[in-house]
Amino acid sequence: MMALDSESEKLIVVGRLCGVFGVKGWLKVYSFTEQQLQILEYKPWYLKRGDCLQQFDLIESRKHGKGIVVQLKGIHSRDIAAEWVNAEIMIDSEQLPKLPEGEFYWADLTGLKVLDLSGVLLGIVVDFMQTGANDVLVLKVPSSEQNEGSQEVLIPYLMDQVIKKVDLEQQEIIVDWDVNY
């Protein structure tokens, strides 16, 4: 196992191990990739449990029902496989295809400040949701005197309508959004 460090900053989460399959160490995979089977194209996998990562090679994979099952090198029993359930599947982000101008991977937007048109900080991007109609930014709003503790704000990811500018260098997203929505 290796500890998380600056090298792991190049890693991106592409899925999660969501259960065991059979008695020979196979695992069920929940893929975050746009095309479910695309996750199998990326190698090697790094599984993240807590603060540690471990690299695994994919031995075999197959479609099973609506999902995917895999066998990873070094995991040959149901008991060992069970230890990895809920681990995040990470890959080197350099493996991802380059996107056209103006398109971004969610991982590129996570952690960015979101400001309204007048420069007021609405929050920090912490997650995303897919709704079918459009993606939604999930922002963590810093606690203040008005709101005790932190809260979440949801903003639709609609380029030009709501999202006016994404500036990766400045680490910010400018939106046309009322803070009171």
From TrEMBL:
It holds the Pfam family PRC_RimM. GO terms for cellular component: ribosome. Coiled coil: none annotated. It comes from hydrothermal vent metagenome. GO terms for molecular function: ribosome binding. InterPro entries: PRC_barrel-like_sf, PRC_RimM, RimM, RimM_N, RimM_N_sf, Transl_B-barrel_sf. GO terms for biological process: rRNA processing. The keyword Metal-binding does not apply. The keyword rRNA processing applies. This is 16S rRNA processing protein RimM. Residues 13-94 form the RimM N-terminal domain. Keywords: Chaperone, Cytoplasm, Ribosome biogenesis, rRNA processing. SUPFAM superfamilies: PRC-barrel domain (SSF50346), Translation proteins (SSF50447). Residues 106-177 form the Ribosome maturation factor RimM PRC barrel domain.
